[in-house]
Amino acid sequence: MEQNTVLSCEHLTFCYPRQTQDAIHDISFVMKESEFVVLCGQSGCGKTTLLRHFKKNQIPFGTGSGRLYYRGQNLERMNDRECAARIGYVGQNPDTQLVTDKVWHELAFGLENLGVSGIQIRRRTAEIAQYFGMESWFRKPVSELSGGQKQILNLASVVIMQPDILLLDEPTAQLDPIGTRRFLDTLGRLNRDLGTAVLLSEQRLEEVLPMADRVLIMHQGQLLGDTVPSHCGDILEKFEKEHGEMLSIAPAMPTAVRVWQACHNEKEQEAPVSIRQGRSWLQQTVHKSGQTEKGSGQYFQIDNSRGTPADKAGRQQKPQEREKTLDQEKVVLQAKGIFFEYEKGKRVLEDFSIQVPKGKIFAIMGGNGSGKSTALKVIMGIYKARRGKVRASGRIRYLAQNPRSLFTELTVEEELTVMLSDWHDRSPVAKMLRYLELEKQQEQNPMDLSGGQQQRLALGKLLMTEPDILLLDEPTKGLDGAFKKKLAELLKDLCLKGKSIVLVSHDMDFCAQYANICGLLFDGQIISQSPTESFFRDNVFYTTPAGRMSQGILGECFRTEDIIAALQKAGCG
């Protein structure tokens, strides 16, 4: 084994109890000193299981084989203290790792357990709090933090022990776009400044892939590829040719990779990965096509009217006309003048108002701690507003950020069965299991599912009650690209049946693709609300990667599919 190898596994195989299929099968790879490696794959493919094997006290219960090494020594025989200090782990759910009541105590907790002196603890906590920008909430109760702040705290409480390697399981799932960049910038600095090796499992690859030295692509429990980011497009292409279908992780790949795969010529060997590389490639590709629009400052326009309503004459409506149309539609949920504070003088919502038309998807976006989750809880009646009114037509159901809060039974099947009004007819349960793609996990404990599988199960449990209005808090968290599309089809189907949906999300692509109306929550109220196209057209940071990549080069392309369609129309690819 090479001297600069920090972590490795040889022919690792593992199977959970009561399961016939391996969760991970015959996986081998090596991580070098200071490497930044991204681990990706569809939900339930074994990413979390694999990561947990590299943290001694996190190795799951079941049967397995293979070898694990940390710097050449058997990882399972490592001293517990050394393992805790040298290998840091940040899990999917920030709440499950927090063990104390205050931020400062959470930072100090790990050092106290390692027997570090009081003087050293005070010095290190002060240093880490400044490094992570936590001064303003250093003495806050952990219960008052947003999901994103909790995840930053989890990272800081691990980094403070100065580990050699960080294992992170979808750490940006609960962060807004700006918070995600801040978190990843910090992670990148740790890797660059301290030489800390990083093994990062992620579904949202737009920001993390450009940072990676290598990418591990998993599929159905096996390691499909071990490559550099610029060759990910080749792996996607090869899989599609060999299997006649798209790889599940493909929709989660960066916009630049997906556009390149669909439109590159055969001579191009390396795909652009970042937005900057994608813009450069796009400019060259468009220039070669000769499709230049004189005097426009842009190369060519596309018809971006897909999905917009038309008037009675079939003419596409302008944004102002569409807003007027929405105002005239039947409103099934209305919140007006909502004021809410957790304690006196600390308001969260002030004059919060929304109107949700029947059969529409309303997406609420905003920064961490802006009050998005609180707004849903007020609408649901979990919190009582000091002022304002909420009016709803029909049955409302709410899915929280943490799907585990809905689980009460021992198996996946029982979680759905308990929602039946008629226990003599179990066919709805079987149908829902098929739709959620959880048939193979029906005998599994819900707590043993991956984050994405738990999200699907929780949503399925709500759907068993046939709600009229769904309130969804980060519904795409932990979902792979393939099931995001499946979720979107389900939501659109519900809308066609007259159901209405309010979702809180940091997933710009998902909102741009499927929401009818988008609103930006800031300073306690919805300060910007409009049909989806005009919302993303008017924003700079709260917009999609496709919008940033195509700005000034193509017409209004807010979706990856729009860029691909424009290039193919021009004869590119």
TrEMBL record:
Belongs to the ABC transporter superfamily. The keyword Membrane applies. This is ATP-binding cassette domain-containing protein. SUPFAM superfamilies: P-loop containing nucleoside triphosphate hydrolases. Residues 285-326 are annotated as: Disordered. One of its GO terms (molecular function) is ATP binding. It comes from Jutongia huaianensis. It is a peripheral membrane protein. Keywords: ATP-binding, Cell membrane, Membrane, Nucleotide-binding, Translocase, Transport. Residues 7-245, 333-548 form the ABC transporter domain. Its main location: membrane. Residues 312-326 have a biased composition (Basic and acidic residues). It is found in: Cell membrane. Pfam families: ABC_tran. Gene3D superfamilies: P-loop containing nucleotide triphosphate hydrolases. Residues 285-307 have a biased composition (Polar residues). CDD domains: ABC_cobalt_CbiO_domain1. The keyword Translocase applies. PANTHER family: HEAVY METAL TRANSPORTER. Signal peptide: none annotated. SMART domains: AAA. InterPro entries: AAA+_ATPase (IPR003593), ABC_transporter-like_ATP-bd (IPR003439), ABC_transporter-like_CS (IPR017871), ABC_transpr_CbiO/EcfA_su (IPR015856), ECF_ABC_transporter_ATP-bd (IPR050095), P-loop_NTPase (IPR027417).
